[in-house]
Amino acid sequence: MTVPTQRVRRRPSVPGRLLPLVLVLALLAPVAALFVQAYGRTGDDRDLATRERLGIEYLRVLAPVTEALVEAQSAAVAGRPASPESLDRAVERVTQVDLRIGGELRSQERWSGLRAKLEALPEKRLTDREAAYTAYSEVTDLLLALYRKVRESSGLVRDPEEDSFFLQDGVGRDLPTALVAAGRLADLTVLAATRPASQATRTLGELAEARIIALGAASDLVADLRAAVGNSERTDLGATVLAPLDTYQRAVEALAAYSAPEPGSRTSLADPAQVGAARANAQSAARQLQPVILDQLDAQLVDRIDGYDRERWIAAGSAAVAALLVLILIRVLVGAFRRARRRDAESRLGTEAGPGGQPGTGSGWQPSTGPRASGTAGALASRGLSPEDHRLLQPTGLGQHGGTDPWETSDAAR
Fold first, then answer.
1. For residue range 252-271, what is the model confidence (pLDDT) as tens digits?
2. In b/e form, how buried is each residue of 294-331, taking b as 16+ CB within 10 angstroms?
3. Using CA atoms, how far apart are residues 396 and 391, in angstroms rounded to an integer?
4. Which residue(s) pair with 353 in the sheet?
5. What are the C-alpha distances in Å from 394 to residues 71, 224, 377?
6. Which one, 28, 204, 235, 283, has least CB within 10 Å?
7. 115: burial class by Cβ within 10 Å (0-12, 13-18, 19+)?
8. What's the N-to-C CA distance of the chain in angstroms?
9. What is the CA radius of gyration of the chain?
10. What's this model's pTM, rounded to 2 decimal places?
11. Residues with Cβ within 8 Å of residue 413, at least 6 apart in sequence
């Protein structure tokens, strides 16, 4: 008879086993892409804010140079002896800062040229007031160009926030321009009183130009600071900036009033003493306003950098949690895969094993285990014969087709 074989469990194909792992990797890929995008974006913004802080540091040490240079120019034009100590100290501080961060701001070449010009000023015999005014004007032009370079290379001119953009524009462009132009206005007023009448037209034109530049830059500064306060979310910005701004604005209004041509005078020129005093008051108010603006701008950049750091930590933490969950899922899938392989191996071994755990063919004829076979086997064993000897000695046609087995008769007689 035919013995039915045991049904073997169908093993899943290789693509079917790899499908869960592919799905896990497909889940991990967008998480990794979002992390890289967020981390890179915050990294670029953080680098920009860090460079802006370097620019603020540079602008902070340029302010004393501007003030000392304007004072030295006024002294040279008025024919007074100038004390170079303040200018030398300011130049030395800028040199130290430029050595440290000038390479990143790409300002070293410009500062080297400006420093050479500054050091050459005392060596020149500027006994001529007109020559002194021309020489100092060239140096102050280089100084304003350095201001522009620092703002551009540090990224201050590309600041993304409205309030900080207006602050940097006011402290890095408007304020130094207003200081230099106010100094030139006062010096031209002094020179105008000494020039011959033949140069009256030229003198009035230069005075009008210097006055427009000085008052225009001061007006731009006031507008920038008020715009910064109006667009800022910081509640302390207005309270900190507006008070010194009002003082500066009043000093500029006094300068505008004293520098206006006098209609009743023969030469229509302003009083040099009054213009000089108004210029000094405006410069003193700017000295108080400038560090306030820089401090507020630097505080905003520090807060922004801290925010970028928090975003990067959050992104890194989210990516780490996602990676951990994916690793746990992969481990679960690998464990399930190994258990499936173990069950398949045990199933194959059980199919190939015979009764009693002995190896078998898995199909085909099996010896009968009935009573007759058991008795016959016992009889053959008692005679020392094996079933194979029994088949050889059995007569043809007997034992297999219902005939009489002689061995059975002999056994019965006994």
1. 999 999 988 766 554 567 88
2. bebbbebbeebbeebeebbeebeeebeebeeebeebee
3. 10
4. 359
5. 140, 124, 14
6. 235
7. middle
8. 34
9. 50
10. 0.70
11. none
